[in-house]
From TrEMBL:
Coiled coil: none
Family, per entry: Belongs to the CMC family.
InterPro entries given in the database record: Cyt_c_biogenesis_Cmc1-like (IPR013892)
PROSITE patterns, alphabetized: CHCH (PS51808)
Name of this protein: COX assembly mitochondrial protein
Keywords: Disulfide bond, Mitochondrion
Top-level taxon: Eukaryota
Cellular location(s): Mitochondrion
Species of origin: Camelina sativa
Length: 80
């Protein structure tokens, strides 16, 4: 299973998504017998790469937020 193939949610994988959807349209029966399997594998790899990038960005943002909160707490304890 793959997540919903909406282009706005997966901009990095847009080309592969379009190819995969075209394959499913061109091979309505063959898709059940592996005609689109190679594209599916490429799509899964792309989703993994996209997720890794998002995870890294989120981690960096959380580190910045933690540092900011730590500084605020330090200032608050220094004032009291």
């Amino acid at each position: 299973m793959h997540p919903p193939l909406t282009p706005h949610r997966h901009p990095m994988c847009l080309e592969i998504i379009e190819e995969f959807q075209k394959c499913h349209t061109d091979h309505p029966i063959g898709k059940f017998f592996g005609d689109c399997t190679q594209l599916k594998v490429k799509l899964d790899r792309c989703f993994r790469q996209e997720k890794a990038v998002k995870r890294k960005v989120n981690f960096e943002q959380s580190k910045k937020l933690q540092q900011r909160l730590k500084a605020i707490r330090k200032d608050e304890t220094a004032e009291t």
